[in-house]
Amino acid sequence: MNIAFIGLGTMGAPMARRLLDAGFAVTVYNRTPSRMTPLAEAGAKTAASPQEAARGADVAITIVSDTPDVEEVVLGEDGLIHGLAAGATVVDMSTVAPEAAVRMADRLAERQVGFLDAPCSGGSEGAQNGTLSIMVGGDASTLDAVRPVLDVLGSKVTRIGGVGAGQICKAVNQVVIAGTYAAVAEGLAFAMAAGVDADAVRDAIGSGAAGSWCITNRGSYMTSGAYPLGFKTRLHRKDLLIALEAARSRGVPLPLTAAVEQQETELIRRGFGDEDVSNLARLAREAAGLDA
Q: Are 94 and 175 members of one domain?
């Protein structure tokens, strides 16, 4: 199976590498050409545009930063739509507005090209280890056809419903993550301010009802005050804005999510937008008097 892979950021690069290692023929494209070099050295072909990458591809995977970027990659002048043959499938693993997924699916259907919105969760570790949770919107038969590809990337692939449903699921995921990160940050800051061993607290509560991916994988960042990149704060805020708009248009209030979005806006304003989203602990630590 020939795969076009578009977007080689923190998540995309290790995902493309896993597909190569699994024996797929992979052609990559990235707006910053230097990011293609390690994949080329590992055996991938490179392309000068999404359209070029799409020629001869059975499946085209996109994972780029925002809704306009995805639509340009898929539908733009040099987009995938102009290179894919009838019967191919686009799998968008970015986090975008649900309505954009529907628009892209409709346009691609005119060319007899299938479409799945398949955003994922699991951070950079999940991308490297193939343990992502992949949330799929689209036809069940289309998913069945590309499942061998997705099974290389994720340990759990779940069809949520029709096109756009995957993006709604990812919005819910980011809403829950937002509250979890903020709560863990506050709790650990409280422990440190109280003078107890915050890492021991993290270990203890991580095995009980308060356990979460966040406390297991990012709690140590929060206690140390260092936030090496796993998922950028500015990208998580982008996701929260998508979730807030999708909920607003459906009459659903998300007050906790709105509060966390404002915290992330403040972190970005202060120059911390490219740190891991666990840097919500910066604000909690400052409020507890732990950091200046």
A: no
Same domain? 115 vs 56: yes
Catalytic residue among 45, 170, 232, 238: 170
The alpha carbon torsion through 160, 165, 171, 172 (nearest 10 deg) reads -40
Write the pLDDT tens digit of every residue in 24-35. Answer: 999 999 999 999
Query: pLDDT tens for residues 213-260?
Result: 999 999 999 999 999 998 999 999 999 999 999 999 999 999 999 999
Question: Which stretches within the chain are classed as H helix?
Answer: 12-21, 37-41, 50-54, 67-75, 98-109, 123-129, 140-153, 165-193, 198-205, 213-224, 233-248, 255-269, 280-287
Domain boundary pick from 146, 162, 178: 162
170 catalytic, yes or no? yes
